[in-house]
Each structure stands twice: as C-alpha cells, then as structure tokens.
Amino acid sequence: MCGVDVNNELKSTCIRSNCNPDISSVLRQHYSKPYFLPDDSELSAIDWIFMGYQGPGASMHLDYVRRPSWQAQIKGRKTWYLLPPPECEDVCIPMNITVQRGDIILIDTNQWYHTTVIEGEEMSVTLGSEYD
C-alpha cells in the first residue's frame, strides 16, 4: 500500500510485502533471522517492508496473517500503540512501545489491536516477517 495524496505528495507510510521466492532470496542475503528466535523456528515466505515519514500509519486494527511476527526497526523511530484482545481486557493493559534503529519487536498482530506513528523527521524503515 503506497500512494500519493491529492497534492501529489507521498503518503506518510508505504507498506510492501513480498512473496516472490527469487526476490526473497536476494532480500534475505541482507539479513538473518533474529538471534533470539529458536533454532528450529522458521520464517514465512513473506517479508514486509514498511517505509514512511512522520505521522500515523494504519488505523487501529488486527492483522489476519498466519503467525506472530517480528519487525526490525532499520532506520528512524516508530511508536506502537497496542490494545489487548477483548478476552484479556480485565487483566491486560494497553501498551505504547517506541522502537528505534536496531530494535526488534515481537508481536502477535492477530491478537493485539495495533497502530503505529512514525516519530521525528527521519524516514522510518522497518523490515519484518512472520515466524513460528
């Protein structure tokens, strides 16, 4: 999801997913699975790249993907706003987490409602994938 607004300016966030195995093999030459995931953990066939400038990303939502995901903040700073699933509202609390260059967040976006806001003037670049 990328585009321009009515003034022909880039929208604040651009999201691309990739499921082409040839492109994935090239992209994955530039990163490895996060070290803290179990050795037998597998990444999905899909990689995501999120890029954008200061401002909001998608509105509060749940994802409908197969697995939990990790997302590595490559450049810039982004704040995640997380709301617990309804069945957890009595014991779970909303969270705000700001990630900066070098941080990795693990989240089950199928369970936690979420939105993000890119902070500061620097472009944000995030790379992610699902894992099991």
Explain what the structure shows.
- With 132 residues, the chain is mainly beta.
- Helix content is 5%, strand content 43%.
- The chain is built from 1 helix and 9 strands, in the order E-H-E-E-E-E-E-E-E-E.
- The protein is globular, with a radius of gyration of 15 Å.
- It starts with 12 loop residues before the first strand and ends with a strand.
- This is JmjC domain-containing protein.
- InterPro entries: JMJD6_ArgDemeth/LysHydrox (IPR050910).
- GO terms for molecular function: 2-oxoglutarate-dependent dioxygenase activity.
- It comes from Trichonephila inaurata madagascariensis.
Features:
mainly beta; four-stranded antiparallel β-sheet; JmjC domain-containing protein; JMJD6_ArgDemeth/LysHydrox; five-stranded antiparallel β-sheet; 132 residues
Radius of gyration: 15 Å
Supply the helix-strand structural class.
mainly beta
Query: Could you state the order of secondary-structure elements as H and E?
Result: EHEEEEEEEE
**Percent of residues in helices:** under 10%
Q: Report the uncertain regions.
A: 1-8
Strand order of the largest sheet: 1-2-9-4-7
Strand content: 35-45%
Shape from CA axes?
globular
Protein name: JmjC domain-containing protein
GO molecular function, one term: 2-oxoglutarate-dependent dioxygenase activity
InterPro entries: JMJD6_ArgDemeth/LysHydrox (IPR050910)
